[in-house]
Design goal:
Two copies of one chain form a homodimer.
Chain A: E1 2-3, E2 6-7, E3 11-13, E4 20-23, E5 34-37, H1 40-48, H2 55-71, H3 78-90, H4 97-107, H5 116-156, E6 160-164, H6 181-188, E7 193-198, H7 205-217, E8 221-224, H8 229-234, E9 240-243, E10 247-249, E11 254-257, H9 260-269, E12 274-277, E13 283-284, H10 301-304, E14 305-310, E15 315-320, E16 327-328, E17 333-336, E18 343-346, E19 349-351, H11 355-361
Parallel strand pairs in A: 6-7, 6-9, 7-8, 9-12, 10-13, 12-18
Antiparallel strand pairs in A: 1-2, 3-4, 4-5, 10-11, 11-17, 14-15, 18-19
Helix pairs in contact in A: 1-2, 1-3, 2-3, 2-4, 2-5, 3-4, 4-5, 5-6
Chain lengths: ~375, ~375
């Protein structure tokens, strides 16, 4: 997607195939800084230090990391080195399912009985494939969801107002994003859309990343606090809610960023369609109920401190926004029960958020 | 209520009856600064500059302001001066109903045919009465709501978890508060309570004021982002939701801080009692449906900038937290339909959020 006049992905290989570049997402939206990864260790650090984030992008970064580890490996000990790099990358973030998937796909290319050069070739092509698979899934989610937006535009005859929560955009993936993919495709086809961007406390992925993405690509959008969506829905200012998902159970319960459940309730109360966009790689077929998920309790400092741009010092700074003695709780995700979900938008099509719906697309 | 070991009100007359002191609420929770008001103009500035806020406190401050205007009035032109001060104070904030009520009560004491000294005496006593009426309403709301908390404690046998939104505390009133009044009374009687404090973006009245109040009075509490309440309710961690109200219609619709509606939906979905605490002075008997209310669209800068404590410079600062080019919408209130409200806690008792319920207590 575009930043200014340039088409960007969140990660790309430079002309020198020993260098993989990523956008430093910790600096957005205040600074566009590109970080060059030259080794498996660089890739590990990029994930662990949250230079990159978003489950799909983490997986892709790990894939490139294993390739870089192979490229730089010692001619004597290449096989162990690459395996160790894979183990290390696997541990870089505890919960991302895509990470394990990508690492397994890459390590499957390592044959200790073969040649180092053969392995490097195979790692190169497998990394490219992991990337392109990710992009293709996003684009297909976009195509599937596009039909929904087009229908709403035909019915209304005026711009379609879409509310989204958190960042399920291209910055979390490689290109297009998940929830944003139908929005970008609609915008690029000239269907007028306007996006209500939930700020998404406490880490503000909505106001920092989604607003940045949409603004750079030229998509009209308005940032709101997380509390405002219900009021907008009551007043007919939202035509569609479109969010991503960190994990979807086989019965259609959706684990996503904290606050998603409240938006689903408001959509339901106001008879507004509530869709979840997700690649099939984030469906957990082993899990029936969302309540089986253990919800991560994150550091209270994420709530107690806020990061932003100091217009006096012209640099990013942190401020404390709570009394020092107050306790803080910071659950990272919540569970939207399938009964509140109008449909799931996947790369294979749109289905009901039910066991039957999901297995109609992913029966195997 | 307590700050440290001292009992405070949000406003009080000093031993010198020419000085009325208020807590500078713009500085909380980072600094406890007391501002001395010595004239009607000082009182006007305190309201206009938001040194004081909260509808009940604004009314009380205006009442004291008219008294101070009388006290400092010119022996020749006292009558016009006091009336002008009343007009000016009336215009200090556009929407507070209590403000008009307090100003009218005070100006009713001004008799241009009488003596200046007589007027000053009457203004003094009327100001005291406006203050004490406010405190009494809060205390009675507290007593009425206390029964609910006591019952929940008896039923559960463990600390009662109460979720609140925004600041409907003593800092918004004079003492006790509205939504917080039952909580303070329960705590002071030894009933174990724990309060989930919604941060309340964008102005953070929850994390800045409610958390401060509760902490200083020794009430156990935990600050959460506005998005977290639904998840806590799904997990049985909320026994009661207790909020204030800026305006309640005669049929029981509740206009309150943006985001209240989302909490009411979540309480309803999880079968958790959702109560609204309000003095009868905030019931709008002329209004039937909440949707008749014009919702104030506040400055986008409230969302785009956040104020907090810089632990390096040791002073409060502001940071921008959005891309400069993003639009912002900032509706200040939303409407919780009466159907989602379990009951209204007023100074005369608890009633259903219906026209019948309200007129059973306020038939006249």
């Amino acid at each position: 997607m575009r930043i200014g006049e340039t088409h960007y992905r969140s990660i790309w290989m430079e002309e020198d195939p020993g260098i993989v570049s990523v956008i430093d997402q910790r600096k957005l939206p205040f600074e566009l800084k590109v970080v060059k990864l030259k080794s498996g260790k660089d890739a590990y650090n990029a994930i662990a230090e949250m230079i990159v984030r978003g489950a799909p992008l983490i997986g892709v970064t790990a894939a490139y990391g294993i390739y870089l580890a192979g490229l730089n490996s010692d001619p004597q000990h290449w096989c162990e080195e690459v395996r160790l790099a894979g183990e290390k990358l696997s541990s870089s973030r505890p919960t991302a399912v895509n990470l394990k998937y990508a690492v397994d796909a890459m390590l499957g290319q390592v044959n200790c009985a073969g040649s180092r050069e053969g392995m490097i070739d195979r790692l190169f092509y497998m990394a490219i494939r992991v990337v392109e698979d990710e992009v293709n899934r996003s684009r297909e989610i976009g195509n599937q969801g596009l039909a929904l937006i087009r229908d709403l535009f035909k019915k209304r005859g005026k711009p379609v107002n879409i509310l989204t929560h958190c960042n399920a955009g291209w910055l979390a993936c490689v290109d297009y994003g998940t929830a944003t993919a139908p929005i970008y495709l609609a915008h690029d086809q000239g269907i007028p859309v306007h996006v209500w961007v939930d700020e998404t406390r406490p880490r503000n992925q909505g106001s920092r990343l989604t607003a940045y993405e949409l603004g750079q690509h030229g998509v009209p959008h308005t940032v709101i606090v997380d509390s405002a969506g219900g009021h907008l829905m009551q007043n007919g200012e939202v035509d569609l809610v479109l969010v991503g998902s960190d994990r979807t159970t086989r019965t259609g319960d959706v684990v996503n960023k904290i606050g998603t459940y409240l938006k689903a309730l408001a959509a339901w109360d106001n008879k507004i369609p509530f869709y979840v966009a997700l690649p099939s790689t984030s469906i957990d077929f082993n899990m029936k109920e969302g309540s089986e998920t253990e919800i991560e309790n994150r550091a209270g400092a994420e709530v107690a401190f806020v990061e932003g741009w100091n217009e006096k010092s012209l640099q990013p700074e942190k401020l404390r926004i709570l009394p020092e003695s107050s306790n803080v709780a910071n659950p990272g995700f919540d569970i939207t029960p399938a009964r509140l979900v109008t449909g799931l938008i996947t790369e294979r099509g749109i289905c009901n958020a039910t066991e039957e719906g999901i297995s109609s697309l992913f029966g195997e």
